[in-house]
Every structure is written in C-alpha cells, then in structure tokens.
Amino acid sequence: MNTARKGATAERKARHLLEASGFVVVRSAASKGVADLVAWNTLGFLLVSVKSGTARPSALEREALAAVPAPANTSKEFWRFPDRCGTPLIERL
Predict the structure, then answer these.
(1) How far is CA 20 from CA 41, 47, 63, 79, in A?
(2) How far is CA 18 from CA 3, 47, 53, 64, in A?
(3) What is the pLDDT of residues 21-47, one digit of tens each?
(4) CATH code reported for the domain at 3-92
(5) Burial of 29 (0-12, 13-18, 19+ CB in 10 A)
(6) By C-alpha distance, which of 82, 88, 75 is closest to 13?
C-alpha cells in the first residue's frame, strides 16, 4: 500500500472514531493544511493531524499546529495509527 493510500485510510479511521464519539467532522481539503480533520461537539473543538505507520510529527508540524489561533475550548492533537493498529496513539499539544 502506498503512503498516500495508507494516510487516507488512517484519516478515515480517525473520522469514524470521532463521529462514533458524537463529533461532527470535516476533512481539510487535500489535507495540505496544518490539521487533517476539524471536529466539534457541544463541548469544544478538535484540530487533528493524522499520521500512519511509522510517521511521526516533525518539530515544524508541532510548531505549526501549536501556532494555529483557536478558541480556548480547542484541543490540538496528533493521532498516530501504527501499522495494523486500529486504536490511535493520541498526543495532545
């Protein structure tokens, strides 16, 4: 499986998990922005950057996500889906 396909699969898993938890989720167009997914519910917002396989967020990606202006009730997170793992490893900034 190529990296783009692997990444898209991880994004779909993340979206499904968020929607199952009661969030409304939208995908960033072409996922070229800082966050791949933006989700919200009655309690707040999530900005989620999704990684798959052995990919980890770089220092620049961490800085960029941390610098996004957002309301106080926003959580900025990196979700990693290691190979053959359905449960994400979540890192909150």
Answers:
(1) 12, 17, 29, 16
(2) 22, 12, 20, 23
(3) 999 999 986 657 789 999 999 999 999
(4) 3.40.1350.10
(5) exposed
(6) 88
DSSP letters of 39-82? EE-SS-EEEEEEEETT----HHHHHHHHHS---TTEEEEEEEE-
Length of the chain: 93
- Give me 79's structure tokens: 């979700």
Calpha distance 52→54 (Å, rounded): 6
The amino acid at residue 22 is: G
pTM: 0.89
